Amino acid sequence: MNNSLLIFPTEAGKRLAIRELQNRWTFQHVQFLTMQELKDQLFVTPLPILKEEKRTLAFYASLSETDKDFFKINTYFQSIELAHNFFDLWQEFNEELVSQDMVLSMLAHNGVELLDWHIQAFNRLKTIKKNYKDFITARGFIDTIFTHTKSNLDVSSFASFQAIHFINQFYYTKLEREIIVALSAHDKEIYIYYQLPKELVNRETLAIQPFMVADLGQGRTEHIDIIECNDEFSMLRGLIQHVHTQKLRHVVHFSAKHHPYGRLLSPLHFNLGRSQNFTTTFLFQFFKHICVILEHLLYEPIQRKILVPVQQLLDAMLDATVSTCLLGEETNVRSSVLDYLYTLVDQDYKFIDLGGDLISRKNEKIYNLLCRLLSKIRLFMGIDSISSFIEKIDTKDGVKIEDLLSDQEKGATNIREVFYRTLADFYSIEKSGIITEWHSIFRNSRVAPQAHIAAGILRLFIDSLTSCSIRFYTAPAASPRVEFIDLQDTRNIFYKNVAVMNVVEKEIPHARQTPFLFTESQREALGLKTYEDTKLLEKYYFMRLVLTTPHVTLITQRNQLQNIEISSFVEEIKSFSPTSHIRVSQIADENYSGVYQYILKSQQDYYAPVDKIRHISFYTVPLQLKRDFLQGELNLSYYALANLLDNAFTFYIKNVIRLDERSKRVDADYSPMLIGTIVHQCLNFIWRDILEQHILPPVEIDFSTISEDFIKKAVDKTLQSHLFYYCSPHNHAQVYFQEILIPRIITGIRHFFLFLERIGLSRTLLEIYPERDDAARKNDYIAYLNLDNLNLTINIGGRADLRIELPDQSLYYIFDYKTGRYNREQLILYELYYYLLQGKATENQVFSFFYQVMQDEGKELRDFYQRKSKTEMFTEFEQTVREHIHALWEKGFALPEKKAGLDDMADVTRSDLYATKYLPLTRRLM
User: Fold this and answer.
1) DSSP symbols for 574-643
2) Which of 110, 551, 619, 818 is the most exposed place for a label (fewest CB within 10 A)?
3) What is this structure's pTM?
4) Mind listing the pLDDT tens digit for each residue in 344-399?
5) Which residues, in sequence order, are CB contacts of 906 under 8 Å at separation 6+?
6) CB 389 within 8 A of CB 455
7) Distance between CA atoms of 561 and 15, rounded to whole angstroms?
8) Cα(764)–Cα(206) distance, rounded to whole angstroms?
9) With b meaning 16 or more CB within 10 Å and e meaning fewer, what string describes 681-694?
């Protein structure tokens, strides 16, 4: 082996060879390289080579506006995919010795169809390549797509080696063959190793002809276990069983870190790795949240404000690391800010302004905390270069990295080393001088112009962190554990026994991908690698693994519903291997809960006992009058009453103990709530303007004279309001809202006043009470029912949008504006609350209406009960309320007996168990 060079296809194979031969090292002149390392030494250039982010940034910077328009690129980050395809294509041309000037003629000569867009795109890429080269060479750099060519091949650096060994590489590109020829021309002994019958190898081209498993011989295989499963969980079950029974030590094609079921594996028996992707760290999450906030900042040009999205602020504050860094260690501080943000979400606010104008000064503590948060955003928004970003790291007013590390990360990982090394590499982008003007790189029309550069630099930085990993310092394992390896890394390695997971079509072999620019037939005509070449390569390494391993377990899956089929490689093994060597078994659907309970053993039982979930008491909160209704009163607004009638269990949570879940999602569009608020606000403005024209009530109004122009002024006033400004999404939906929805609202309001005329209220003396004039009564309740047997009084309250009364108190009208759904019981409650319970009017003197503004439709209460008198309506309503209150006394706060009412808080009420274990079968199927 003296004076020998060993070339391996992968880094894993090279490392294993070094480890194996170290014990027999006799100070001989032997060197180990991968094929890529060999190329890097054969193609030497005096200029530094661009790689990774520097390469992609230079690519984008070299694009002309015509190039960007052609490939529909608006931002740097949209160009990354094209850049990767661009570099891969030219590298592949170099590897297969394809001349870019001969491409079109080669395709024409082979009779392959070439469309106009192919020609245009390819010519555009040639132009981009030239411009890219000019751009980087002018700055003193070069790229491997210009250096790794046959004309630059120089083998003189390997003159000292007498023998060169190429170990088990299946596919050699034309450039790699030229390298072998060039090395052999200098009197080198060349050895090329395959684990294939020599009849399958063409010694001139080194090409491998297609083969079947029968062509490869028997190999070392003694037993092949094929386990056929129905789903991924069953495959994991089969793996665990074989690890136990067959003493498996290696598992191929399964990443425990990236597989959801990998978390079930014990680190005592499986080597789950001492590394962790940087994206899982608190430090990464902090920069990610800041970046996302910057990317969603919006500049509103009319009032010239920068708007900060409430959704992204809430997401950031829900992350304990971010909130701790921005607000401090006190948990009550974080809770105060979260409560304020939740309130904004409940009120449909989508933005607050960066200057803090929206924030209420009523609570000085909250105001100061949010201003501190906004000042941090302004700090990062001031980034205009990588240097200015680094200036924010580990400074008094910036970000202290140590504060963003968990105790475990501080004491047991190399996270500091990884972060600062990445930061230094990041700084080298700017220091190299490739990019001098960041504004031209980071332009994004969706981001506030003031934050373009800051958001772009932060996004570039967190993208560079994404590929990093941190290593945990752990004690050595007490006993050997199962190792996870990739199929490509099994080359040149022998195992005694091994399991291969998920051997299904589209995995092994992998699914056919649509190639960039050229079709499969065009690639074949150009001499580029095709899908069939890649499939044959995968087949070789898979079959090589099977035939060199005495005991092999192939775990596969067949699932017709998900269109999953057993790999054709497995089917071939079953067909051509000796039946005495193969054992096929099936694992049907597992009892998932049973397996989980066995694996996830705990000292406490967190699952619901079977004997309890079959009893109605499990789905009921017992009523305790002194606890639940301390004052002996139950106050019911319409919405509370509706909740009680629909689902008593959730009524208890929301209305009795007031633990309603806070919404964490901001509606990104014009929500139904916002549209309803706009309509109500418009009508309130209109009533104010109408009534201000009269000195004292009663007033006489000709509703037919209320014009659309008059209504439009109120609409404009509403859209200029504080509420609408911060609740509007300020995006493309604004065009639809202004041009379609607003005219519809104006027309609907106009028709409402015509409706008032139709029911006889025009040109008549009236006393009018819009919603705003009822504000003082917002929280008032009056007694409705006295349940003496329960010692409980039921009070009801409400707030109608509009009330109109005749001065002689002969007739009373109630109106509720609607832009969505409505429920007739709401009108009953309003009539009771405002007039009937207080004896101000009789049932026949009160008329209540829903008016659907968007449909120009008014409906009176009687329209919903055409065959019932008002007395019957109110009697039935009272009976319903009594029945539900008595049900509380008899059953407690129980779930409804209809499946339609079980959607609310389904995870809390466990309606899934309730529906299947308790409801009668006929109701379960509703």
Assistant:
1) HHHS-GGGEEEEEE----HHHHHHHHS--SS--SPPHHHHTSGGGGEEPP-HHHH-TTSEEEE-HHHHHH
2) 110
3) 0.84
4) 999 999 999 998 888 877 778 888 888 888 998 999 999 999 999 999 999 888 88
5) 912
6) no
7) 43
8) 101
9) bbbbbbbeebbeee
